[in-house]
């Protein structure tokens, strides 16, 4: 066993120290260097990373159930997860134990040598975490409850609910998978994976510097999304503020995740004019119907945009000023039993209160898009604020 090995350097892009090891002096050099590396998103801040962070291209999302009834064990898990997540976002190994030849390494190793890839790891707590197992009922915010039945949906219990969620986003799919895999492994005996979703391409932009991506229906998606620069909208619609009944949640946010299947073959047979009417935008440019530029404001007073167009029914103008910060991903799980493509949009949105999602989704009951999609999985979680130095994820729950 060589102590140097326990300071192993994971990614080759930063300076001279390679896999061979890192001595104490190098560690300081590394943190200074790492701080300047554009591929590292700071883990400790007032808000959790992975919400307004410029959206990365890859996702691994996981929902977990807690299998212990021991509150101290849950706290231990959150502390361990915090340390491991922080380390992985820096492109470092999950700390501890990697030099013992008689035990499995602490880190599974598949991200060894890869760049940090702007990894963000974001945690959320589901309504079921606040039941009678851990004495957390008094810490439960009134806004956190299972979503009502929302038409049209056909939810698969195998992709619904969860006590905890982890959203890992990065520019490299192996980095996101590694993060969730290692947290699941560290949680063995305390949590079990309930469901998991990989996403391969972002379907939104969360910063003005990002180009708008396209979803699997071929349309630009995220044009009118909330951006990190819109701090007034974030305060009004995304970050939990003084209005909360649970002060420990200030600076947090709620996340709603929906696994939405697209009937891609049917969509691909639809003619272009109808596809455009479904969304209320031109397919090529992304401009609202009747306008010319992608970022032109839709004229919702005009009949160019049909009454049942997606952008009309989802718009803040139609929903009392409600905004959602969307952060979804395209996904595919191959084909279904009939040979049709099984793919769609893994919708993720952050908001101040889940009733914002319920309002918009209720308005979407008459959406022209519903002919081509179905909601088949769902989760709602409250994300605590960011961790400041010395704290662990969700510490406010226990103090
Ligand atoms: C309940 C919220 C929403 C669900 C569910 C949803 C599903 C969904 N959306 C698309 C594609 C597009 N959505 C677009 C805009 C848009 N969508 C929502 C909300 C939900 N979408 C909002 C709030 C908005 C913005 C409305 C506005 O302010 O104009 C667009 C247009 C481009 C854009 O602004 O992002 C597309 C395209 C799919 C494919 C889908 C389910 C599979
Ligand atoms: Fe949408």
From TrEMBL:
<comment type="function">
    <text>Involved in the recovery of exogenous heme iron. Extracts iron from heme while preserving the protoporphyrin ring intact.</text>
</comment>
<feature type="region of interest" description="Disordered">
    <location>
        <begin position="89"/>
        <end position="114"/>
    </location>
</feature>
<keyword id="KW-0456">Lyase</keyword>
<dbReference type="InterPro" id="IPR048327">
    <property type="entry name" value="Dyp_perox_N"/>
</dbReference>
<keyword id="KW-0408">Iron</keyword>
<dbReference type="GO" id="GO:0004601">
    <property type="term" value="F:peroxidase activity"/>
</dbReference>
<keyword id="KW-0575">Peroxidase</keyword>
<dbReference type="InterPro" id="IPR006311">
    <property type="entry name" value="TAT_signal"/>
</dbReference>
<dbReference type="GO" id="GO:0005829">
    <property type="term" value="C:cytosol"/>
</dbReference>
<keyword id="KW-0732">Signal</keyword>
<dbReference type="InterPro" id="IPR011008">
    <property type="entry name" value="Dimeric_a/b-barrel"/>
</dbReference>
<dbReference type="GO" id="GO:0046872">
    <property type="term" value="F:metal ion binding"/>
</dbReference>
<keyword id="KW-0560">Oxidoreductase</keyword>
<dbReference type="InterPro" id="IPR006313">
    <property type="entry name" value="EfeB/EfeN"/>
</dbReference>
<dbReference type="GO" id="GO:0030313">
    <property type="term" value="C:cell envelope"/>
</dbReference>
<keyword id="KW-0349">Heme</keyword>
<dbReference type="InterPro" id="IPR048328">
    <property type="entry name" value="Dyp_perox_C"/>
</dbReference>
<dbReference type="GO" id="GO:0033212">
    <property type="term" value="P:iron import into cell"/>
</dbReference>
<dbReference type="Pfam" id="PF04261">
    <property type="entry name" value="Dyp_perox_N"/>
</dbReference>
<dbReference type="GO" id="GO:0004325">
    <property type="term" value="F:ferrochelatase activity"/>
</dbReference>
<feature type="domain" description="Dyp-type peroxidase N-terminal">
    <location>
        <begin position="48"/>
        <end position="200"/>
    </location>
</feature>
<protein>
    <recommendedName>
        <fullName>Deferrochelatase</fullName>
        <ecNumber>1.11.1.-</ecNumber>
    </recommendedName>
</protein>
<comment type="similarity">
    <text>Belongs to the DyP-type peroxidase family.</text>
</comment>
<dbReference type="Pfam" id="PF20628">
    <property type="entry name" value="Dyp_perox_C"/>
</dbReference>
<feature type="domain" description="Dyp-type peroxidase C-terminal">
    <location>
        <begin position="212"/>
        <end position="387"/>
    </location>
</feature>
<dbReference type="InterPro" id="IPR006314">
    <property type="entry name" value="Dyp_peroxidase"/>
</dbReference>
<dbReference type="GO" id="GO:0020037">
    <property type="term" value="F:heme binding"/>
</dbReference>
<keyword id="KW-0479">Metal-binding</keyword>
